[in-house]
C-alpha cells in the first residue's frame, strides 16, 4: 500500500501541528497531568516505598478527589456517551455495557474506594470516545483503506470484554470478607493492575485509531488527542505504581486496624496466617455488619451460601478463602453473568419520557420553583400555594384533596353561570370571558381524568393520609421536595389519572398488601402440604429451609400487619375497588418476576435487588418479592416429590431472602433515626408505618391473632398460587412458565446408590523389585485440626510405573474408590488423586507430594488442593525464617477442592450452594503442624525388612505457609497388614508378643472374611452403628468438630483403625443416607440445653401465650419426665406436649394446639363413656365394653398415658409403647424411593402427636399428692400391695395348673 500523502493531507497535518503548539490544556487535562507526573516522580524514587513517598501523597489526593466526585461525574459521562451513541450507533453496544458496569457500582450499598479507583480508569478510557464528536466522517477511509468506524469496530470487542471483566472483578472483590481482602490484597492488587492496564492499552489504541486519520478533517480532534496522549502517557506506563498507591493508602478503617495488628507480629502476614490465636483475634476484632452474624433477635445466624461475614468465619474458613486464587474466585462467581445481563437489559430499556402536559411556555430563568413540576394538577397546586423547593407532606396531601374537590365544583358552577347568562342574552364579551374561565379550569385538570374518577375523591381524606405521605415522602423527612413530587407522579401507570394514582396509595395499596398477605399464607400452606409428599432423601433439605431464620423472619414480618380481620370478607376475584388497581399490581409483579428470572432468583447483594425491584423504598416491593420467592420454593418442594435435590437447592432462596432482610433492616434503622430526631415513640410509630409490617423487624413478635389464624383458612381466600402468565415477548413468544424453569442444580444421586461391588486385590501376591513402586500399599492421611488417622485406613495399589517415572494407581478410602496419576522424579513423588464417585454432585481431586524412602518401602508427604500452587517442604530445605515460623505455627489453611463445581462454599461470595456440601461431603482438610502417626508401621518395618533398613530417610517437616492441608503416610504393605497390626505401645512393651499378635490377627481376619458367624455379624453391626452415630454427631454440629473431648477423639481413632476402607466408604454412605432423612430441629432444649434436637417436644401449657419462645424438650428430658424452668415458666410432666418429627412452620404451632385440645377432649370423653358403659355392663354381667384402641398395635387403651394423632383424618390414638418403639427403630432413616408418608388416612411415623400424661406422672406431680397425710399415703401403699398380692396369687394358680397338666 502506498504511503504517499496528498498535498491537502499534508496541509491538514501542518495545521494540526500549529494548533498543538498553541493548545492550552483544559482543567481536566491539567488534573490528569498532575496524576501522571506524581506517579512518575513516585516511581522514580528508590529511597522510599512508592506507597509512602511524598509524590504518592499527591497522587492519593488527586485520586481521592476523583473518587469523591465519581457518582456525579460518571452520570454526566453516561449521558454524554448516550448522545454520542445516537450519532455513532456502532459504539452503542459498548456504551450499554459500560453503563451496565457503572450502574452496578453506583447502585451498590457500600463501595470500596479501591473499586472506584479502578472504575475511574475505565471511565478515563471511555472519555476518549467523546472525541468522535469532532470527527467529520467516521466512514471515510483513511490512508490504510480503513475508516475510523472499521478500526473501532475491531477494537470494541476487546473493550467490551475488558469492561465485563472489570465489573466481575469489582463485584467479586466487594463480596470478600474484610479479613480475606486484607490477607489477599497483593493478589487483588495484581488483578486490579491487570484490568487497569487493559483500559490504558485500549485508550492508547483508540487514540491511535483517531490520530491515524488526521488527514481527513479532524484537526481539532487531533489537537486534543495529542495533548491528552502526551499528558497521560506516564500514567499509562505506571498503572502498577498507581494501584500500589491505591491499595496501600486507600484502605478501609477495618483494614488499617488489621494492618496495625499484623505489624506487631514478627514474620508479617505469613506468621499471622500460621497462628490460630492471632487469626481468632483478627476475626474477633472485625466489625460484623448489623444483622449479618445475628438475626433480629440476637440469635447467631448460620452462614448461608454466598454469605461470608467476618463474624461467621472460622479460622479454617478464613484460611480457605485466603488460599483461593483470584481466578478461582472469579470462576466461582457464576451468577454474576446473569446479573450483569439483567442490568444491561434494564439500562437499555430506560427511556426518559418528558410529559408535555400543556402548551404553556415556561421561562426557566425567571419562573418560580413550581415551574419544575411536571404534572399539571400538581403544578397548579404548588403554584397557587406559593411553595418553594419543598413542602410539608401533610400540607401537600390536604391541598391535593381540596384541589380535586373544589376543581370539579368550580367547573360545574361556571358552566351553570355561562349557560344561564346565555339564555338571558348577556353581552358577548362577558360570555367570552366566562368561556375562557371554563377553559382555564379545564386546562388545570388531568387529560387522563374522566367523570368516572370521582370515585377516587372519597379516598383522598384525612383518615387515609398516612399511606400517601409515605408514598410522597420517600426519605421520611416529613417534607416533600420537587424531585420527590415528580418521581411520585412519573411512577403512575400511563392511563391512570392523578386522582386514580392517589387513590391507589390511600386505599388500593393497603388492599394490595392484604391480598399478598393471603397469597403468601396460601403458598405457605401449599409448601406444608407438598413437604409431606417429598422423597425421604429430601426431608432434611426442606426441613432446614422451613426452620431457617429466613423463614422465621417472614413469619415475624407478617405478624405485624394490622387490620387483617377487616379484610377477611373481601372477594379478591370480584371486588369492585380492587379491580380498579389489580391490573397495575399484576403487571408490577410480572416485571419483578421477569427480572428475578434474569438473575436466576439469586439476590446476592443490594445492587442486584435494585435491578430486580427498582430503586426506592422497600415497601413498594417487599410483599410481591417475598411471595415470588416462596412460590419458587414451592416449585422446588414439588420437584422434590420425584427427584433427589442438591443439598444447596433451597439455599439460593434463603440467601435472596437474606439480602431482602438487609434492605428492610436498613430502612427500619433510617425510620428509627428519624423518630429519635423528632422525639417520637419508635414502637408506636412502627405500628402506624406501612400498616404495622415493620413492628417486629427488631422486636420479638407479640402474641396476636396472626399466630392463631390457620394458614389453611387464609389459603381458601385466594385462588392464584400458580404464577401469573408472563407477557408475550417482542417476537410473540411467552417466557418460560414456572414449571418449565429448571432447578438451580442438577438432581443428584445418593452416594449409597453409586457404590459398586468392590474388587479385592490378592494381598498375598509377590512384591516386585524394591526400587519400583508397583505393588500394594496402605496408609492413612491426617487432618490439619485433628490428631490421629483422619478418616481411617487407605488402600493404594500401583499398577503401572515406567522408566520415565509415570505411575498409575488406584485404591479406596472412606470417600470411595479413586484413581491416581503421577510421576516419580528421583525420590520425589507427585500425583493427583481423583475420586471416581462424585461427592454431592461434585468432582473431587487432591494433589499429593511426598518423598520415597531409600528402600522404596515408605512414602511420606503432604496433600492439598489441586488449584493452589503449594510447595512440599522437607527437613534441610526450608530457610531459618520458615523453620522458625513453622515452629510457632498453628493451623495452616485448608481448602476444599472445587473442581467442576456448580457452586462455591458458603464462605465464598459466589453462588449459593455449598454450605451443605462442605459439611456433608467431608473432603479431607488437615493441619501441617501435626506429625503423622505411623501407627505401628515404623517398628513393624524395622522388624520385618530383611535388609534391616530403618526409617532414616528424608522426613517431612512442614509446608509452605498457608497452602497445604496435611500429611499422609504410605507403606508397602496391603491394607490388611495395618488393620491387623498391634499398637506402638505393644511393640515397645513386648515385640515378640506383638509380632505373634500380628500373625494371629491377620489369620483371624482372613478366616472371618471367608466365613460368616452371628458373633462376627453382631460385632460389625455394633461397629457400624458406633461409626454412623459419631459421624452424624460430627456433621450435625455447626462448624469444625473441635469440641470433642479426649475420650471421644480416642474412641474415634480406635474405631477407624480396625475397619477396612471399603467398609468405611459403605458406612459413610449410610451416614449420609440417614443424614438426608433425619430432620434436625433448630431448637434448644429448655431442660438440659441440648442443641439441636430431634424429635421436638413442645409443651402446650408453657407455650400458650408465646409467639417466639416456645417451651421445648429433647427426647431424653421428655422420657425422663423432667421438670424444667425458664424465666417465670415451670414445666411439669403433667403438661400436654406436642411431638414433631417433621419441621413445622411456626404459624402452624398454635392452630395445632387448638386441634390438640379438641383431640384430648374427644379422647377424654371416649374414656369417660367407656367407664360409664363398663359400670353398667359389669352390673348386668356383660364385659364386652371397650375404650380407645391404639391404631398401631390394636390394643385397648382404658386410661392415660397415650398419644392423640393430630394428622390422621379419623380421630385416633397411639399407645406410649408403640411410639417409643417407633422412635427406637427410626424407620424414616431407611426409607427409599418414592415411599413418602403421604397418606393421612393411615397413621405413620411422620404424624404430629399430643400427649395425655399417665396416672403415674400425674400422681407424682400434683399438689394434692404433696398435701396427702401420712395415713393417706400408707393407705395407698397398702392398696398397691394388695394389688400385687392378687397378681402373685393368680400367678401361683397358673403355675399349679401347668404342673397339674404335666
Automatic annotation (TrEMBL):
Biased composition, class Basic and acidic residues, residue ranges: 285-298, 924-938
Listed CDD domains: ZZ
Region (Disordered): 285-306, 709-737, 877-958
Coiled-coil regions listed: 1260-1301
UniProt keyword Metal-binding present: yes
Bias kind Acidic residues: ranges: 877-889, 939-949
A molecular function GO annotation: zinc ion binding
Keyword Metal-binding appears in the UniProt entry: yes
Keyword field: Coiled coil, Metal-binding, Zinc, Zinc-finger
Top-rank lineage group of the source organism: Eukaryota
InterPro entries in UniProt: Znf_ZZ_sf (IPR043145)
Name of this protein: ZZ-type domain-containing protein
Amino acid at each position: 500500500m502506498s504511503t504517499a500523502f496528498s498535498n491537502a493531507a499534508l496541509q491538514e497535518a501542518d495545521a494540526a501541528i500549529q494548533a498543538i503548539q498553541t493548545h492550552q490544556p483544559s482543567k481536566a487535562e491539567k488534573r490528569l497531568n498532575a496524576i501522571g507526573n506524581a506517579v512518575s516522580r513516585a516511581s522514580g524514587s528508590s529511597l522510599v516505598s512508592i506507597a509512602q513517598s511524598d509524590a504518592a501523597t499527591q497522587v492519593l489526593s488527586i485520586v481521592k478527589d476523583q473518587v469523591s466526585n465519581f457518582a456525579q461525574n460518571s452520570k454526566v459521562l453516561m449521558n454524554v456517551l448516550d448522545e454520542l451513541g445516537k450519532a455513532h450507533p456502532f459504539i452503542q453496544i459498548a456504551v450499554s455495557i459500560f453503563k451496565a458496569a457503572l450502574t452496578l457500582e453506583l447502585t451498590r450499598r457500600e463501595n470500596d474506594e479501591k473499586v472506584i479507583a479502578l472504575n475511574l480508569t475505565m471511565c478515563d478510557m471511555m472519555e476518549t470516545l467523546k472525541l468522535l464528536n469532532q470527527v467529520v466522517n467516521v466512514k471515510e477511509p483513511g490512508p490504510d483503506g480503513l475508516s475510523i468506524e472499521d478500526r473501532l469496530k475491531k477494537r470494541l470487542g476487546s473493550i467490551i470484554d475488558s469492561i465485563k471483566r472489570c465489573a466481575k472483578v469489582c463485584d467479586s472483590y466487594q463480596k470478600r470478607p474484610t479479613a480475606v481482602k486484607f490477607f489477599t490484597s497483593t493478589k487483588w492488587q495484581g488483578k486490579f493492575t491487570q484490568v487497569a492496564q487493559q483500559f490504558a492499552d485500549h485508550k492508547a489504541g483508540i487514540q491511535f485509531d483517531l490520530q491515524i486519520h488526521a488527514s481527513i478533517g479532524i484537526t481539532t480532534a487531533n489537537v486534543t488527542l495529542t495533548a491528552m496522549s502526551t499528558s497521560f502517557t506516564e500514567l499509562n506506563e505506571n498503572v502498577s505504581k498507581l494501584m500500589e498507591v491505591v491499595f496501600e493508602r486507600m484502605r478501609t478503617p477495618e483494614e488499617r486496624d488489621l494492618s496495625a495488628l499484623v505489624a506487631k507480629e514478627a514474620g508479617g502476614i505469613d506468621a499471622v496466617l500460621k497462628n490460630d490465636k492471632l487469626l481468632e483475634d483478627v476475626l474477633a476484632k472485625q466489625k460484623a455488619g448489623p444483622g449479618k452474624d445475628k438475626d433480629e433477635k440476637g440469635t447467631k445466624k448460620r452462614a448461608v451460601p454466598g454469605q461470608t461475614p467476618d463474624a461467621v468465619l472460622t479460622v479454617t474458613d478464613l484460611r480457605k478463602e485466603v488460599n483461593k486464587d483470584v481466578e478461582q474466585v472469579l470462576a466461582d462467581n457464576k451468577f454474576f453473568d446473569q446479573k450483569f445481563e439483567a442490568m444491561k437489559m434494564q439500562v437499555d430499556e430506560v427511556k426518559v419520557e418528558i410529559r408535555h402536559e400543556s402548551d404553556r411556555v415556561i421561562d426557566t430563568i425567571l419562573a418560580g420553583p413550581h415551574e419544575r413540576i411536571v404534572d399539571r394538577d400538581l403544578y397548579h397546586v404548588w403554584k397557587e400555594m406559593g411553595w418553594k423547593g419543598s413542602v410539608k407532606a401533610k400540607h401537600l396531601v390536604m391541598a391535593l384533596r381540596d384541589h380535586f374537590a373544589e376543581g370539579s365544583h368550580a367547573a360545574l358552577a361556571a358552566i351553570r353561570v355561562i349557560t344561564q347568562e346565555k339564555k338571558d342574552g348577556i353581552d358577548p364579551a362577558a360570555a367570552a370571558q366566562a368561556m375562557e374561565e371554563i377553559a382555564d379550569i379545564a386546562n388545570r385538570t388531568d387529560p387522563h381524568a374522566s367523570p368516572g374518577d370521582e370515585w377516587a375523591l372519597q379516598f383522598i381524606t384525612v383518615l387515609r393520609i398516612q399511606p400517601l405521605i409515605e408514598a410522597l415522602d420517600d426519605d421520611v423527612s416529613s417534607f416533600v421536595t420537587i424531585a420527590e413530587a415528580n418521581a411520585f407522579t412519573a411512577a403512575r401507570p400511563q392511563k391512570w389519572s392523578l386522582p386514580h394514582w392517589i387513590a391507589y396509595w390511600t386505599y388500593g395499596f393497603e388492599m394490595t398488601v392484604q391480598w399478598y398477605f393471603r397469597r403468601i399464607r396460601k403458598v405457605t400452606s401449599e409448601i406444608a402440604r407438598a413437604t409431606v409428599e417429598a422423597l425421604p432423601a429430601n426431608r432434611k433439605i426442606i426441613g432446614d429451609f422451613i426452620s431457617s431464620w429466613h423463614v422465621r423472619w417472614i413469619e415475624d414480618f407478617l405478624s405485624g400487619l394490622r387490620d387483617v380481620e377487616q379484610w377477611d370478607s373481601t372477594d379478591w376475584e370480584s371486588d369492585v375497588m380492587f379491580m380498579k388497581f389489580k391490573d397495575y399490581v399484576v403487571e408490577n409483579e410480572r416485571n419483578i418476576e421477569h427480572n428475578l428470572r434474569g438473575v436466576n432468583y439469586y439476590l446476592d447483594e443490594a445492587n442486584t435487588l435494585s435491578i430486580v425491584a427498582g430503586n426506592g423504598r422497600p415497601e413498594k416491593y417487599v410483599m410481591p418479592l417475598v411471595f415470588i420467592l416462596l412460590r419458587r420454593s414451592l416449585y422446588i418442594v414439588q420437584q422434590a416429590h420425584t427427584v433427589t435435590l442438591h443439598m444447596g437447592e433451597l439455599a439460593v432462596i434463603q440467601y435472596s431472602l437474606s439480602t431482602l432482610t438487609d434492605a428492610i433492616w436498613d430502612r427500619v434503622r433510617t425510620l428509627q433515626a428519624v423518630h429519635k430526631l423528632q422525639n417520637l415513640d419508635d414502637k408506636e410509630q412502627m405500628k402506624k408505618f406501612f400498616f404495622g409490617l415493620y413492628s417486629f423487624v427488631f422486636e420479638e413478635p407479640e402474641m396476636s391473632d396472626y399466630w392463631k389464624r390457620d394458614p389453611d383458612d387464609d389459603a381458601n381466600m385466594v385462588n392464584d398460587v400458580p404464577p401469573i402468565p408472563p407477557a408475550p415477548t417482542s417476537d410473540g413468544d411467552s417466557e418460560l412458565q414456572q414449571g418449565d424453569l429448571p432447578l438451580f442444580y442438577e438432581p443428584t444421586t445418593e452416594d449409597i446408590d453409586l457404590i459398586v461391588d468392590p474388587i479385592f486385590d490378592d494381598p498375598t501376591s509377590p512384591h516386585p523389585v524394591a526400587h519400583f513402586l508397583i505393588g500394594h500399599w496402605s496408609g492413612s492421611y491426617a487432618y490439619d485440626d485433628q490428631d490421629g488417622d483422619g478418616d481411617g485406613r487407605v488402600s493404594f495399589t500401583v499398577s503401572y510405573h515406567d522408566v520415565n517415572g509415570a505411575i498409575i494407581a488406584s485404591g479406596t478410602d472412606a470417600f470411595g474408590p479413586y484413581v491416581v496419576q503421577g510421576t516419580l522424579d528421583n525420590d520425589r513423588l507427585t500425583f493427583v488423586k481423583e475420586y471416581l464417585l462424585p461427592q454431592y454432585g461434585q468432582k473431587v481431586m487432591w494433589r499429593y507430594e511426598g518423598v520415597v524412602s531409600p528402600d522404596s518401602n515408605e512414602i511420606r508427604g503432604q496433600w492439598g488442593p489441586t488449584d493452589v500452587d503449594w510447595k512440599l517442604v522437607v527437613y534441610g530445605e526450608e530457610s531459618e525464617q520458615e523453620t522458625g515460623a513453622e515452629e510457632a505455627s498453628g493451623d495452616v489453611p485448608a481448602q476444599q477442592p472445587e473442581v467442576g463445581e456448580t457452586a462455591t462454599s458458603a464462605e465464598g461470595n459466589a453462588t449459593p450452594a455449598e454450605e451443605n456440601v462442605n459439611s456433608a461431603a467431608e473432603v479431607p482438610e488437615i493441619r501441617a503442624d501435626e506429625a503423622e502417626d505411623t501407627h505401628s508401621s515404623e517398628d513393624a518395618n524395622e522388624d520385618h525388612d530383611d535388609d534391616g533398613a530403618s526409617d532414616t530417610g528424608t522426613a517431612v517437616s512442614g509446608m509452605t505457609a498457608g497452602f497445604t492441608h496435611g500429611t499422609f503416610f504410605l507403606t508397602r504393605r496391603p491394607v490388611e497388614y495395618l488393620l491387623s497390626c498391634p499398637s506402638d505401645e505393644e511393640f515397645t512393651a513386648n515385640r515378640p508378643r506383638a509380632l505373634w499378635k500380628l500373625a494371629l490377627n491377620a489369620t483371624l481376619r482372613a478366616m472371618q472374611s471367608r466365613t460368616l458367624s452371628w458373633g462376627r455379624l453382631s460385632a460389625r453391626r455394633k461397629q457400624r452403628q458406633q461409626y454412623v452415630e459419631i459421624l452424624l454427631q460430627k456433621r450435625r454440629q455447626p462448624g469444625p468438630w473441635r469440641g470433642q473431648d479426649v475420650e471421644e477423639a480416642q474412641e474415634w481413632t480406635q474405631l477407624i483403625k480396625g475397619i477396612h476402607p471399603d467398609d468405611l466408604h459403605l458406612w459413610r454412605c449410610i451416614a449420609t443416607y440417614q443424614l438426608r432423612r433425619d430432620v434436625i430441629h433448630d431448637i434448644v432444649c429448655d431442660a438440659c440445653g441440648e442443641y439441636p434436637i430431634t424429635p421436638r417436644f413442645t409443651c402446650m401449657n408453657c407455650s400458650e401465650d408465646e409467639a417466639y419462645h416456645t417451651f421445648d424438650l429433647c427426647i431424653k428430658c421428655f422420657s425422663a419426665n423432667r421438670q424444667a424452668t425458664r424465666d417465670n415458666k415451670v414445666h411439669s410432666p403433667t403438661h400436654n406436649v406436642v411431638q414433631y418429627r417433621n419441621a413445622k412452620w411456626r404459624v402452624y404451632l398454635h392452630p395445632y394446639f387448638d386441634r390438640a385440645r379438641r383431640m384430648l377432649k374427644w379422647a377424654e370423653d371416649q374414656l369417660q363413656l367407656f367407664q360409664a358403659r363398663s359400670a353398667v355392663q359389669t352390673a348386668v354381667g356383660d364385659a364386652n365394653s371397650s375404650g380407645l384402641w391404639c391404631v398401631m398395635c390394636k390394643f385397648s387403651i382404658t386410661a392415660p398415658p397415650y398419644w392423640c394423632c393430630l394428622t390422621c383424618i379419623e380421630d385416633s390414638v397411639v399407645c406410649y409403647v408403640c411410639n417409643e418403639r417407633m422412635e427406637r427403630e427410626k424407620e424414616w432413616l431407611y426409607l427409599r424411593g418414592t415411599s413418602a408418608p403421604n397418606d393421612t388416612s393411615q397413621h405413620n411415623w411422620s404424624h404430629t402427636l399430643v400427649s395425655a400424661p399417665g396416672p403415674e406422672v400425674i400422681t407424682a406431680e400434683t399438689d394434692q399428692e404433696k398435701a396427702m397425710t401420712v395415713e393417706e399415703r400408707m393407705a395407698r401403699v397398702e392398696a398397691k400391695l394388695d394389688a400385687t398380692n392378687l397378681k402373685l396369687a393368680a400367678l401361683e394358680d397358673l403355675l399349679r395348673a401347668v404342673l397339674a397338666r404335666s
